[in-house]
Amino acid sequence: MASRSFWKGYLKLSLVNCAVSMVPATTESEKVRFHTLNRATENRVVSRYVDSVTGRKVDEEDEVKGFQRGEDEYVMLEDDEIDAVALESTRTIDIETFVPKDTIEWIWYDTPHYLTPSDKVGEEAFAVIREAMAIKGVVGIARLVMYRRERAVMLEPRDNGIVLWTLRYGDEVRDPKEYFKAIGPEKSESDYLQLMEKFIDARSTPWDSSIVDDPVQDRILAMITAKKKGKSKKKAAPKAESKGPSNVINIMDALKKSLEASKKK
Fold first, then answer.
1. Can you give the pTM of this predicted structure?
2. Is residue 217 situated within a structural domain?
3. Residue 225 in this model has a pLDDT that exceeds 90
4. What is the pLDDT of residue 249?
């Protein structure tokens, strides 16, 4: 069942605009979640905010956001003050520019959302914007207030809709050169490379979402079901400490053995 939209507003390109709705493209609703209980009473343990100095409980109406400027110095901001910033981009996705899709590296992608027209009147305008981007092979760039911060977003045509990606801020992405510069520029020997290519071909399969299934969660759910039925479960034996692979002396031999094993599978 499709989830309810968590954001409604307008998609705007120059004089063309339409009403749109947005929902997160990912969900954690199926994730196993635990509550902390009091073992003696089996009642839930609740958390509360307390003053870090006095230790006294802080009432909700006395809670306020603060930006730290010094060791013990804060600037306090009320919710309405924060909400008043960048009002224009809170409800309007105004596409400012277009860039070739393949020029934005994956590392800038943050959180995906599905964008759809929210009424029949706007479907034509929505479709025109989506199809034009798809034909030109570009994505739209806009700014939008989401999760209390204004951020750059990328609009990518997908099937009959648009995927809106929030993009990471510039100071969130580390320069890879700082981490890769110590790696030597050595080139692989051609024999090794050809054998590795064959190994990759032998292991290649079409993408399937089952690849990213969570086997640990499945086991936890099975254990919960068994406990519900009153079956006693023995404690799992502690896992043996896993040792890393030994250093491979002969790369060619290792690749040949790996290739043979893949072919047998």
1. 0.65
2. no
3. no
4. 53
